[in-house]
Each structure stands twice: as C-alpha cells, then as structure tokens.
Amino acid sequence: MPKPQFFVTPGYGERLRASHHYSQAVKIGDRIETSGQGGVNDDLAIPPSLDDEIALAFHNVERTLATAGASWRDVVHVNSYHVGGFPPEVNAIMTRLFRQYMPDHAPIWTETGVEALALPDMRIEIRVTAVLA
C-alpha cells in the first residue's frame, strides 16, 4: 500500500493546521480524500449570503484538491453537510455548482442535515473523494 501524503490548503488550511492539527487532504495512491471544506475565506469569515457561502465552499474544495494534484474532474463522491435542512434554494445552488464544476460527469452525492458545524455561523461543509485517472 502506498504511503499516505497529507496536504494543507494555503491560507485557511494553514491556520487550521496550526490551531487544530489536521490536514485538508490525504492522497493514497490514486485516491484523494478531503476533510470537510466550509465556505470560509482565509480569515475563516463566512459570507452572509447562503449562495455565496456554498459557492465559496466549492471554491475551497477546488483549492484543496489542487494542493494534492487533483481537480473537480476527478471527483467521484461528494458528501455535503447542511445546517438548517434542505430548502429548495440549497439543492438549486448545489445542482448549479455541480454542473459548473463537473459539466462532464455527475458524481455520487450524499446530503446530510446536521445540527451544527465547526464554526458557529457555518451552514455548509463539503467533503469529496477524488480518483486520479
């Protein structure tokens, strides 16, 4: 079995590595797993708009995948964690961003409603599995 390689996203990932001692992604062979990526900027601030928060979470997944040599085109599985349930706008935003980031394939997806996430104002966290071709 190949040795795991751990990756830290520049910016917010470096802050979280220093404060909470965890990495943003791990690569084992051709498989990459990410930790949950929130819709936060490098200062861990969350946009007030749900649409902007979800879009930033997708962007952070992209940043994290890039640190490990992957991209959204390699994503095969998405787990999304949501505070506040699944009003129609949540699925509409997620679907729009799936089509934007993965126009050539549709990954498997699991949505989970949760009571809270790591930061008090967080409403979404996205975790992915990618496989390099």
Explain what the structure shows.
The protein has about 130 residues and is an alpha+beta fold. It has helices at about 10-20, 50-65, 90-100, and strands at about 5, 25-30, 30-35, 35-40, 75-85, 110-115, 125-130. The chain has a single domain (about 5-130), classed as 60s Ribosomal Protein L30, Chain: A (2-Layer Sandwich). It is globular, with a radius of gyration of 14 Å.
Helix-strand category: alpha+beta
**Integer-rounded radius of gyration:** 14 Å
Q: Which consecutive residue ranges, at least 5 long each, have pLDDT under 50?
A: none
Proportion of helical residues: 25-40%
Number of domains: 1
What share of the residues does DSSP label as strand, in percent?
A: 25-35%
Task: Choose one word for the global shape.
Answer: globular
Name the average pLDDT. Answer: 97
CATH H-level superfamily: RutC-like
User: What is the level-2 CATH architecture name?
Assistant: 2-Layer Sandwich
- By CATH, the topology is 60s Ribosomal Protein L30, Chain: A
Q: Count the strands?
A: 7
Secondary structure elements and their pairing?
Layout: E1 5-7, H1 12-20, E2 25-28, E3 31-34, E4 37-38, H2 50-67, E5 75-83, H3 88-101, E6 108-114, E7 124-131
Parallel strand pairs: 5-6
Antiparallel strand pairs: 1-2, 2-3, 3-7, 4-7, 5-7
List keywords for this structure.
globular; alpha+beta; 133 residues; seven-stranded mixed beta sheet; 28% strand; single chain; 3 helices
